[in-house]
C-alpha cells in the first residue's frame, strides 16, 4: 500500500481534479458518493460523473483500486478575524429528508447544508424511487410520491448514523421498514437503538434485528401510545415523532429530548400538516393525521457549526462575527466561552466572539439540551489545552468520546482521561503535527488545534469532517486562516514490495 501526495501527480490525467464534494447538484442522481470511481463510465476525458453536459472536474477521479485520502494542511498561530455564515443544521436535515418519505406532495427545503451525510441521504431516497431536484446550492425539492420501496440500499445506509430515521418514516408510510443498522461516528461500541425500538413497539410494530438489519412491521397499522423514554435520546424522540405523525390517535412521548433540531423536525412536520405540540419540552404530543401534504420549509441554522467557529476563535484568538445563527440555541455554549474569558455579543441573528486575553480554565459537563452539547466537547477541549490552569471535562452523554485526546497529545497537549472525565492541564502553545479525525467533531477539534498551533498541522481522514461541515476550508480562509485541502492518493494496486 502506498500513499502519494496529489501534488506530485499534477501531470497525470487520471487524477486531474483535486476538488472535493462541492454542490448537491454535482452528486444527486449520479450514483457517485464513493471516493472510488473505478466502475463509473466517463462522460468526458477526466470527469466520470455521468452528467450529460458536464464540463467541470467535480471531484478526484481515481483509476483502478486507488482511494482518495484528502487531508487539510494548516499553518497555524494566526488569529481569526471577520465574518462567517453558518449553514443549515445537519442534525435537523438528516431527519427532515427521511420525513419527506411520509409526505404526499412536493417538499421544497431551503437552507440545506451541502455535506456528505445529506448527499448520501438524497441518493438513498433516489435509489428508493424518490424524485430529487436541486433548485440551487442550498435548496432541494423532494417528491416521494412515486416511491414504491420500503427497503433501503444497504451500502449507503451503513455510512450514516441518521439512517435510523428511515425506520420511523417508512413505518409511518408503509407500516413496514427494512433498514441496515446505523453507522456513523463511533463513541465507544455500537450505538444503541433500544429506545427507538421501544417506541415503535408501543405504536404496535414488531421489530427484530437480524444480520445487521432492523425489520419493523405493523401489519394492523400504527396506533398512538404513551411512550416513556428511559434515556433522553435525540434519535428516539425524533424517530417516534416521525412514525406517530401518521398513526391512528394520540402519542405522548415523555422524557423527550429538547434539542433545537427536535423542534425543527416538529415544525417541518407541522408545516406539512402534522399535529405535534410540546416539541422543545420533555413531553411531546402527536395527534396522528391521515395525510401530510407538500410545502416549503427552511432548516434552522446549525448550532454546532456556529459553536465550532466560536471555539476556533477561543483557541486561535481574534474576533469573529458568526452570522445566520439563533443566539438562544447558542446560550449553553456562550456561557462557557464567557467563563473562559471571551467577550460574546449577541446580535439579532449573529454573535460576535472576541478573545483578547489568555483563556481561563473551566469545568464543563456535557448534558442533553439545554445543557452543554456533547457535540461541542472535543472542540472546546482543544481550546482548553491552551487555557491557564487545569480544566475538567465530564462527558455526560456518551460512554467514550475522548478518542481525539491521543491526537491532541501529538501536538503537545497535556490531557489525562479517566472514564468519562478528562483533565486538561493548559500549555503555553501547541505545535503542528500529523493528526487524524477520529470522528466528525473530533476532526473539527483537530482543525481548531491546528489553527492555534505553531507550525504545520496535517489533519487526515477528513471525510468524517465533511459529513457535517459545509465549505469548512473556504469559510476558515475567509477568516484569515492558512488552511488548504490537499488530495492524497492511496494506491492499493501497487504492492508494498515494489
Ligand atoms: C444525536 C446526534 C449526535 C449527538 C447526540 C447527542 C444526530 C444525527 N446525531 O445522536 O451528534 O451526539 O444526538 O446529542 O442527530 N441511547 C440509548 N438507547 C437508545 C438511544 C440512545 O441508550 O435507543 C443512549 C446513547 O448511547 C447515548 C444517549 O442515549 O448515551 C444519547 O444518544 P442519542 O441522543 O440517541 O444520540 P443520537 O440520536 O444517536
3D architecture notes:
The protein is an alpha+beta fold. Strands 23-24-3-25 form a 4-stranded mixed beta sheet. It has a 4-stranded mixed beta sheet with strand order 4-16-18-17. A 4-stranded mixed beta sheet has the order 6-7-5-15, with helices on one face. β23, α13 and β24 form a beta-alpha-beta unit. α7 runs parallel beside α8. The N terminus and C terminus are likely disordered.
Radius of gyration: 23 Å
Distance between the termini: 10 Å
Low-confidence stretches: 1-65, 493-498
**Apparent shape:** globular
Annotation, overall tally of beta strands:
26
- Which small compounds were modeled alongside the protein? uridine-diphosphate-N-acetylglucosamine
Report helical residue fraction.
25-40%
Largest sheet: 4 strands, mixed
What structural class results from the helix and strand content? alpha+beta
Strand order of the largest sheet: 23-24-3-25
What is this structure's SSE topology?
Layout: E1 2-5, H1 24-27, E2 66-68, E3 71-75, E4 80-85, H2 90-99, E5 106-110, H3 116-127, E6 131-136, E7 139-143, H4 154-157, H5 165-174, E8 176-180, H6 194-202, E9 206-210, E10 213-217, E11 226-228, H7 234-245, E12 250-254, H8 260-271, E13 275-277, E14 283-287, E15 295-298, H9 303-316, E16 318-323, H10 327-339, E17 343-346, E18 350-355, E19 363-365, H11 377-384, E20 390-394, H12 404-410, E21 414-418, E22 421-425, E23 434-436, H13 440-452, E24 456-460, H14 463-466, H15 472-478, E25 482-486, E26 488-491
Parallel strand pairs: 4-16, 5-15, 11-12, 19-20, 23-24
Antiparallel strand pairs: 1-26, 2-26, 3-24, 3-25, 5-7, 6-7, 8-10, 9-10, 12-14, 13-14, 16-18, 17-18, 20-22, 21-22
Amino acid at each position: 500500500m502506498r500513499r502519494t501526495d496529489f501534488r506530485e501527480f499534477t501531470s497525470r490525467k487520471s487524477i486531474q481534479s483535486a476538488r472535493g464534494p462541492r454542490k448537491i447538484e454535482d452528486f444527486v442522481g449520479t450514483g457517485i458518493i464513493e471516493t472510488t470511481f473505478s466502475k463509473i463510465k466517463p462522460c468526458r476525458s477526466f470527469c466520470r460523473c455521468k452528467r450529460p453536459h458536464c464540463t467541470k472536474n467535480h471531484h478526484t477521479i481515481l483509476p483502478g483500486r486507488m482511494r482518495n485520502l484528502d487531508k487539510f494542511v494548516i499553518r497555524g498561530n494566526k488569529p481569526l478575524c471577520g465574518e462567517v455564515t453558518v449553514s443549515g443544521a445537519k442534525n435537523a436535515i438528516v431527519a427532515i429528508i427521511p420525513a419527506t418519505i411520509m409526505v404526499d406532495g412536493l417538499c421544497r427545503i431551503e437552507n440545506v447544508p451541502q455535506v456528505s451525510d445529506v448527499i448520501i441521504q438524497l441518493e438513498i431516497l433516489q435509489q428508493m424511487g424518490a424524485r430529487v431536484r436541486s433548485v440551487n446550492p442550498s435548496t432541494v425539492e423532494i417528491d416521494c410520491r412515486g416511491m414504491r420501496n420500503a427497503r433501503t440500499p444497504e451500502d449507503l445506509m451503513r455510512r450514516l448514523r441518521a439512517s435510523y430515521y428511515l425506520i420511523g418514516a417508512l413505518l409511518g408510510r408503509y407500516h413496514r421498514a427494512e433498514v441496515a443498522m446505523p453507522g456513523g461516528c463511533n463513541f465507544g461500541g455500537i450505538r444503541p437503538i433500544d429506545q427507538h425500538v421501544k417506541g415503535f413497539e408501543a405504536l404496535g410494530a414488531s421489530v427484530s434485528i437480524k444480520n445487521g438489519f432492523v425489520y419493523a412491521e405493523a401489519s394492523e397499522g400504527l396506533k398512538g401510545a404513551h411512550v416513556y423514554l428511559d434515556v433522553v435520546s435525540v434519535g428516539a424522540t425524533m424517530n417516534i415523532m416521525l412514525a406517530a405523525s401518521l398513526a391512528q390517535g394520540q402519542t405522548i412521548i415523555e422524557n423527550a429530548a429538547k434539542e433545537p433540531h427536535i423542534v425543527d423536525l416538529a415544525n417541518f412536520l407541522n408545516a406539512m400538516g402534522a399535529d405535534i405540540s410540546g416539541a422543545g419540552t420533555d413531553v411531546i404530543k402527536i395527534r396522528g393525521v391521515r395525510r401530510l401534504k407538500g410545502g416549503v420549509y427552511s432548516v434552522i441554522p446549525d448550532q454546532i457549526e456556529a459553536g465550532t467557529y466560536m471555539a476556533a476563535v477561543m483557541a486561535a484568538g481574534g474576533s469573529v462575527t458568526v452570522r445566520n445563527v439563533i443566539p438562544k440555541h447558542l446560550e449553553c455554549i456562550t456561557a462557557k466561552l464567557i467563563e473562559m474569558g471571551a467577550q460574546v455579543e449577541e446580535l439579532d441573528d449573529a454573535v460576535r466572539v472576541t478573545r483578547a486575553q489568555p483563556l481561563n480554565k473551566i469545568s464543563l459537563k456535557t448534558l442533553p439540551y439545554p445543557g452543554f452539547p456533547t457535540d461541542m466537547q472535543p472542540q472546546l477541549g482543544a481550546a482548553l489545552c491552551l487555557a491557564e490552569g487545569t480544566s475538567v471535562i465530564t462527558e455526560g452523554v456518551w460512554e467514550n468520546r475522548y478518542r481525539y485526546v491521543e491526537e491532541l497529545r501529538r501536538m503537545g497537549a497535556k490531557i489525562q482521561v479517566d472514564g468519562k472525565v478528562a483533565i486538561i492541564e493548559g500549555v503555553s502553545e501547541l505545535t503542528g503535527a500529523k493528526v487524524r479525525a477520529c470522528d466528525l467533531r473530533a476532526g473539527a477539534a483537530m482543525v481548531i488545534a491546528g489553527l492555534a498551533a505553531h507550525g504545520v498541522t496535517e489533519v487526515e481522514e477528513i471525510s468524517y469532517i465533511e459529513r457535517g461541515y459545509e465549505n469548512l476550508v473556504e469559510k476558515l480562509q475567509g477568516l484569515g486562516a492558512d488552511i488548504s485541502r490537499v488530495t492524497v492518493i492511496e494506491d492499493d494496486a501497487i504492492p508494498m514490495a515494489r
